[in-house]
């Protein structure tokens, strides 16, 4: 006999998985009739995940889901820590999943979390996610969900972000202020809002300082968390763009790959080329020279993301529809030895 899941109960009753989850928790916006049908079928099918018995007593599972694009990323590791530490204080367990920047995996993981009867979900969009129906359906069904870091402006929900455009503008401005005239940019594919906004910030800083934008020195990395992609771009710059005197990479791993490769090619940093990263990974403090970067406070973002989700969970349980809000975490340019 196959395992009984929330999805199977939902399909049997002709309702959404989210509605089944909420009915099991006695949420105020689910009708008494629907609650009765769901609970009766759940009992009939002997549906009892670990969180179910507790949810019947307390109307909550005390579990939240956290989906991140890449666990290997230092920034997201700090977000995980911030979320878990904050959740522990309120007695919550955190199920952490990695989408690996895949739209399909992201959809599967959201379904899995709903099936685990989670009270709410924290999600940073995968790079390949350009359609949002799977998210809007969860929001429309009233399941608390908060987007953090990689978001879409077209999704209406609570969000926790940094001002990527402003941060990139300030990073590029530092390169300009230090004397750079030909500044290359390494970005990812123009799909997640973070990539778009950092690219905009770079271009706006050039325009504000009367430096012409040249698309030939904008490079697209296949993987923005790739040391090797950074090295490959460094080769391209060294061979074909010898007039470049500054590089702004949208992640520290890309910037580190550039730095290491240019040193191998006997380019003097920052005398010949200044390099600026983004995120403030631990490795930026141990490269030679130490890497200038933008401090992106992951731990604080994790704390704030859980805080706003916890608030939304409590409001949803009480039937309170509060206005959505966007929390912005401040950033700072960290000047080290890779820039003049």
Number of separate strands: 12
**Portion in helices:** 40-55%
The whole-angstrom Rg is: 23 Å
Mass-distribution shape: elongated
Supply the helix-strand structural class: alpha/beta
Strand order of the largest sheet: 2-1-3-4-5-11
- Within CATH, the superfamily of the largest domain carries the name Response regulator
The CATH class of the largest domain, by name, is Alpha Beta
CATH architecture of the largest domain: 3-Layer(aba) Sandwich
Poorly predicted runs of 5 or more residues: 50-57
What is the count of distinct domains?
A: 2
Give helix and strand order, one letter per element, not per position: HHHHEHEHEHEEHEHEHEHEEHEE
How does the major sheet shape up?
A: 6 strands, parallel
Describe the fold and architecture.
- This protein has helices spanning 6-13, 17-24, 32-44, 52-58, 74-89, 103-115, 133-140, 164-177, 193-208, 227-240, 252-264, 298-317, and strands at residues 63-68, 93-98, 120-123, 145-148, 158-161, 183-187, 218-220, 246-249, 274-276, 293-295, 326-328, 332-334.
- It has 340 residues and is an alpha/beta fold.
- The chain folds into two domains: 6-154 and 299-329, Response regulator (Rossmann fold, 3-Layer(aba) Sandwich), CATH 3.40.50.2300; 164-295, Response regulator (Rossmann fold, 3-Layer(aba) Sandwich).
- The strands form three sheets. Strands 2-1-3-4-5-11 form a six-stranded parallel beta sheet, with helices on both faces.
- β3 (120-123), α7 and β4 form a beta-alpha-beta unit.
- α8 (164-177) runs parallel beside α9 and α10 (227-240) crosses α11 (252-264).
- The termini are far apart.
């Amino acid at each position: 006999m196959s395992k009984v899941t929330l999805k199977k109960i939902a399909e049997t009753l002709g309702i959404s998985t989210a509605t089944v989850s909420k009915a099991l928790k006695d949420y105020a916006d689910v009708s008494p009739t629907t609650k009765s049908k769901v609970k009766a079928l759940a009992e009939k099918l002997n549906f009892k995940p670990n969180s179910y018995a507790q949810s019947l007593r307390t109307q909550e599972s005390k579990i939240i889901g956290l989906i991140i694009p890449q666990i290997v990323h230092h920034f997201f590791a700090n977000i995980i820590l911030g979320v878990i530490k904050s959740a522990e204080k309120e007695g919550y367990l955190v199920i952490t999943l990695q989408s690996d920047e895949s739209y399909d995996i992201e959809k599967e993981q959201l379904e899995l979390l709903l099936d685990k009867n989670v009270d709410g979900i924290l999600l940073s969009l995968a790079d390949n996610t350009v359609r949002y129906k799977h998210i809007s359906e969860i929001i429309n069904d009233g399941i608390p969900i908060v987007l953090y870091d990689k978001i879409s402006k077209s999704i209406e929900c609570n969000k926790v972000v940094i001002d990527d455009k402003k941060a990139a503008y300030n990073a590029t401005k530092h390169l300009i202020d230090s004397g750079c005239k030909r500044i290359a940019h390494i970005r990812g594919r123009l799909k997640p809002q973070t990539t778009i906004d950092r690219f905009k910030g770079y271009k706006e800083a050039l325009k504000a300082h009367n430096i012409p934008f040249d698309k030939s020195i904008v490079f697209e990395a296949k993987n923005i968390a790739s040391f090797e992609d950074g090295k490959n771009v460094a080769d391209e710059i060294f061979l074909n763009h010898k007039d470049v005197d500054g590089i702004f990479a949208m992640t520290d791993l890309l910037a580190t790959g550039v730095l290491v490769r240019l040193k191998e090619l006997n380019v003097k940093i920052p005398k010949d080329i200044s390099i600026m990263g983004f995120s403030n990974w631990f490795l930026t403090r141990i490269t030679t020279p130490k890497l200038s970067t933008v401090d992106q406070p992951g731990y604080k973002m994790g704390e704030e993301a859980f805080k706003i989700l916890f608030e939304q969970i409590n409001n949803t349980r009480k039937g309170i529809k509060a206005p959505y809000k966007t929390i912005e975490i401040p950033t700072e340019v960290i000047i080290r030895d890779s820039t003049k």
